[in-house]
Amino acid sequence: MQARLQEEIAAIRVEASAGGGMVTVQLDGHKNCLGVKIEPEAAGDAEMLQDMVQAAFSEAARKVDEETQKKTAGMLGGMGLPPGLI
């Protein structure tokens, strides 16, 4: 069961953006970066670009955590564990 859960987590793909879509980040279930897209207009202000990249990564990481929790809860939900344990 643990191997199956690890496979499902590895298959997770999320995307998040910041700055109204100026920066988009894609992560897998292990929070490895699969891609970063930066619109040319965003490259003018380095500090703002850094903030947008950080925000997009943070949002993508949050989405990975959320998806991982859903998969874990779904898999462990049928085991009859007490509520609140997962």
What does this structure look like?
The protein has 86 residues and is α+β, with helices and mostly antiparallel strands. The chain is 47% helix and 21% strand. The chain has helices spanning 2-10, 46-76; strands at 13-18, 23-28, 33-38. Strand 2 and strand 3 (33-38) form a beta hairpin. The radius of gyration is 16 Å and the shape is elongated.
Largest sheet: 3 strands, antiparallel
Euclidean distance between termini CA atoms: 15 Å
Overall pLDDT level: 90
Alpha-carbon Rg, integer: 16 Å
Give the quaternary arrangement of the chains: single chain
Q: What percentage of the residues does DSSP assign to strands (E)?
A: 15-25%
Sheet/helix structural class: alpha+beta
Counted by DSSP, the helix tally is 2
Contiguous low-pLDDT stretches (5 residues minimum) are none
* Secondary structure: number of strands: 3
Main sheet: which strands, in order across?
1-2-3
Helix content: 40-55%
Q: Could you spell the SSE succession in H and E letters?
A: HEEEH
Describe the global form.
elongated
Secondary structure blueprint with pairings:
Blueprint: H1 2-10, E1 13-18, E2 23-28, E3 33-38, H2 46-76
Antiparallel strand pairs: 1-2, 2-3
